[in-house]
Amino acid sequence: MYQDLVGDWIVTQSWGSNADDKKACNQTVSTSYQDARLIVREIRKELKAKGFRHVARKETQLGFEFGHTLCQSAEAQ
């Protein structure tokens, strides 16, 4: 789930296997965070009913210094 540049919330589902090149993707657009969370909740319910379980994992947020780089470029000119 992520927010795009115009403010819509996108819920992306993907499934399949790279091994046999059979894969698919579905994206659902929602105009609010709450609606997108409801979509994710329903997806989780469906997966749990099929026997899947959530495995916690640590995610790393990549830090990009876009603003800092732009300021330096403007000062150099």
Tell the overall outline. Answer: globular
**Mean pLDDT figure:** 83
Q: In oligomeric terms, what are we looking at?
A: single chain
Strand order of the largest sheet: 1-2-3
**Beta-strand residue percentage:** 25-35%
Unreliable runs? 69-74
Question: What Rg, in angstroms, do the CA atoms define?
Answer: 18 Å
Q: Order of helices and strands, N to C?
A: EEEHH
Count of helical stretches: 2
- The class by helix and strand makeup works out as alpha+beta
Tally of DSSP β-strands: 3
Number of domains: 1
What is the helix content? 25-40%
Distance between the termini: 39 Å
How would you sum up the major sheet? 3 strands, antiparallel
What order do the helices and strands come in, and which of them pair?
Blueprint: E1 2-3, E2 9-17, E3 22-30, H1 33-49, H2 66-76
Antiparallel strand pairs: 1-2, 2-3
Explained architecture:
- The chain has 77 residues and is of the alpha+beta class.
- It has one domain (2-56).
- The protein contains two helices and three strands; from the N terminus they run E-E-E-H-H.
- The protein has helices spanning 33-49, 66-76, and strands at residues 2-3, 9-17, 22-30.
- A three-stranded antiparallel sheet has the order 1-2-3.
- Strand 2 and strand 3 form a beta hairpin.
Which terms summarize this structure?
single chain; 77 residues; alpha+beta; three-stranded antiparallel β-sheet; globular
